[in-house]
Design a protein that fits this description.
Elements (H helix, E strand, L loop, with lengths): L1 H10 L1 H6 L2 H9 L3 H25 L3 H32 L6 H32 L8 H25 L2 H8 L2 H26 L22 H10 L4
Helix pairs in contact: 1-4, 4-5, 4-6, 5-6, 5-9, 6-7, 7-9, 8-9
Length: 237
């Protein structure tokens, strides 16, 4: 417990969001990796759990519980998938980064993303409480709007979190130009992985005219982009 509290203090939300020199040097030297990973995981949980609850509360309390459980798991899944792909991309592009450093970099990026989401939770809650509920005649329009809003907010926070890695990548690669190229590739990979994994794990809103599922029944018969497109084209009801 003491070590966890120490990790939260030394490598928690504040040092991560500021990209403190102590954090950067700990990643570069790999001598504080365990504490940094712990701090990042705590930050991810602290940010995504409240946002997940707000995400689902419009639909029902059950949806809120499902979403607050799935959001941290989704972020961890995106980190794992992105790490595997981004490690290979970094090596191909000439960046001498170890798998461990790429993993920690991804955790830092998504810890920042999660803290941004946590900070926006009150705003999202205000929006949700001001729109008609899921039993209203206009529920499908509200559903489409909230689904797009949440997707946009999560995507924007994800981009900001990854962009904050530029300073770290510059330190690790020794080249700003290389850091920029690697970062651009990583953002594309993380965005694509995040969209597809969010479709599979379905932490988002269930349609107002259907029961709330824990698992997405259409996970392997469609994809995130098609669903969002069809939602706005009116094909979902």
């Amino acid at each position: 417990m003491i070590s966890i509290l120490q990790s939260w203090t030394d490598y928690g939300p504040g040092p991560i969001c500021r990209m403190d020199d102590r954090l950067l040097q700990g990643i570069k030297s790999e001598n504080q990796i365990r504490s940094i990973i712990t701090g990042c995981c705590l930050a991810i949980a602290a940010g995504t759990i409240p946002y997940g609850a707000v995400f689902g509360i419009w639909r029902s309390a059950r949806q809120a519980c499902y979403s607050l459980l799935k959001m941290p798991l989704l972020i961890v899944a995106v980190v794992i998938v992105s790490t595997l792909i981004n490690y290979m991309l970094a090596r191909v592009m000439g960046a001498d980064l170890s798998m461990k450093k790429v993993l920690v970099a991804m955790l830092v990026a998504f810890a920042i993303t999660s803290m941004l989401l946590g900070g926006l939770s009150p705003v999202a809650l205000f929006v949700v409480t001001q729109v008609p509920d899921h039993t209203a005649p206009s529920a499908m329009i509200v559903y489409r709007t909230l689904l797009t809003l949440h997707a946009g907010v999560i995507g924007a926070c994800g981009i900001v979190g990854n962009v904050r890695l530029y300073k770290l990548l510059g330190l690790l690669t020794g080249s700003r130009a290389l850091a920029g190229r690697v970062l651009a590739a990583w953002i594309l990979v993380s965005g694509f992985a995040g969209c597809q994994l969010s479709w599979l794990m379905s932490p988002y809103l269930a349609r107002p005219d259907m029961p709330v599922p824990f698992f997405n029944p259409n996970a392997f018969s469609s994809n995130f982009y098609e669903y969002l497109w069809r939602a706005w084209c009116g094909a979902l009801g």
